Amino acid sequence: GTADIGVTGLAVMGANLARNFARNGYTVALHNRSRARTDALVAEHGHEGEFVATETLEELVQSLAAPRRVLIMVKAGQPVDDVIEQLVPLLETGDIVIDAGNSHYEDTRRREAALAEKGLHFVGVGVSGGEEGALNGPAIMPGGPKESYTALGPMLEKIAADFDGEPCCAWVGTDGAGHYVKMVHNGIEYADMQVIGEAYDLLRQVAGMEPEEQAQVFTAWNQTDLASYLIEITAEVLSQVDAETGRPLVDVIVDEAGQKGTGRWTAISGLDVGSPVAAIAESVFARSLSSQPQVRARARELLAAGTEGSGTPAPSDREAFVEDVRQALFASKLVAYAQGLDMLSAAAAEYGWSLDLGTIASLWRDGCIIRADLLDVIMRAFGGRDTDRHPEPGTRAEGQPANLLFAPEFTQAIAEALPSWRRVVATAVAAGVPVPVFSSALAYYDGLRAERLPAALIQGQRDFFGAHTYRRTDRDGSFHTQWSGDRTEVQS
Ligand code: NDP
């Protein structure tokens, strides 16, 4: 065969990636379980480039030049295993199987190990940017064996988004690292969307600003250091008027947020690797709480006491309040990034990945949902993009800050935002407006820099009921107080 790449799974994502490859000059072999999708793609978009329609996976594989590159874009989960099982007997040593769907990184690790035994490369690739990104240039986060990148990387880089001449694509690490990085991207996305939601809620409920007026505020914010795709589309959504009712569309939409699982995975993994990703987890919990309409309805009846009159009047200086909210949003968003990047390092230590945070931040500068001016600043705080920099798993390369918030540009930005951030959280609490991520992010910030944490008391409690021992501030060793005896201390 002569085709450069085969794509199996031609629903919207697979079809758009296939078209993207073809538009970039590659010959793309097409396959879908049911033939109709293949035919539809060729009929509608066949003129966009070189396609080879195939009926079976055998035919797909035969149409490819060696080393064969087969990209799987089917429904995540069992379907990916089904397709792999059918593909493997058809492939030869050195061929590359690519999973570009939203697979769980543990599945990717398992599949990579299984295919490696058969001499095949399995590459889990994180792809972000939705349908439009897939077609016009997504952010691409490939994992898998590094050797495979020689044969695959240039093609992925060609179809990826481009930021100032650099592709939003680079090999991130072995086995499941690509899918892991994409998962954390999504976790940060959840938090970013939630902090925007909290800002909107405060402007609405405390400052009384209608959606249309807020659209202008978000448009203006998009000219500040908050500039990002999500802020931009927020202005679009807020200015949309429902054709049927004439009301702001946001008031017509049911306020129950859906989720497909990547945010939940991020929170779970954060717990697994012991990384405090509270802002990300809170944003997942906020969606879960929103999606319990019956409980919420009961709560409005039964827990109504104290709600009347709890709202504070619109602040006398609305402009100052709006700026306070902007600062709180920026600071909280930074914390979400700090937590997300931190969990990448923790996972790297756990799974033996060499993750370079500067390079990873560079991939998110364009093409993906969290694309934002801020990512270029974050990238520079981590020493810029350097695809040859491979820090020891769990460590950061020389000169990279141990926490995003320690980078000089951010220590200063947060210090400036802090008074606003506190005022906003205090106002929200007084007014009864829930701000789980604003407040959790602030607690993380205060927790990080606290002189003494009540963890000392918790150690005392643990020693009391479980003889778990504690360390002392004044000398080395582990100690236990004989709580049920004469309460003398023994060294253990
Ligand atoms: P779907 O997730 O809806 O999956 C549909 C495709 O999977 C069809 O081609 C279907 O074939 C195929 N399929 C399902 N089960 C099997 C099976 N057992 N064997 C073979 N083929 C099967 O498609 P999407 O395009 O929406 O998403 C594809 C992947 O991309 C998913 O992992 C999804 O999570 C991810 N995604 C990523 C986004 C992003 O922004 N990165 C956005 C949306 C999705 P058939 O036509 O025969 O039914």
From TrEMBL:
Pfam family, one: 6PGD
Catalytic activity: 6-phospho-D-gluconate + NADP(+) = D-ribulose 5-phosphate + CO2 + NADPH
GO molecular function per UniProt: phosphogluconate dehydrogenase (decarboxylating) activity
EC number: 1.1.1.44
6-phosphogluconate dehydrogenase C-terminal domain mapped to chain residues: 178-484
Biochemical pathway: Carbohydrate degradation; pentose phosphate pathway; D-ribulose 5-phosphate from D-glucose 6-phosphate (oxidative stage): step 3/3
Signal peptide from the UniProt entry: none
Enzyme class: oxidoreductase
Function in brief: Catalyzes the oxidative decarboxylation of 6-phosphogluconate to ribulose 5-phosphate and CO(2), with concomitant reduction of NADP to NADPH.
Family, per entry: Belongs to the 6-phosphogluconate dehydrogenase family.
Quaternary context: Homodimer.
Listed name of the protein: 6-phosphogluconate dehydrogenase, decarboxylating
Organism: Micrococcus lylae
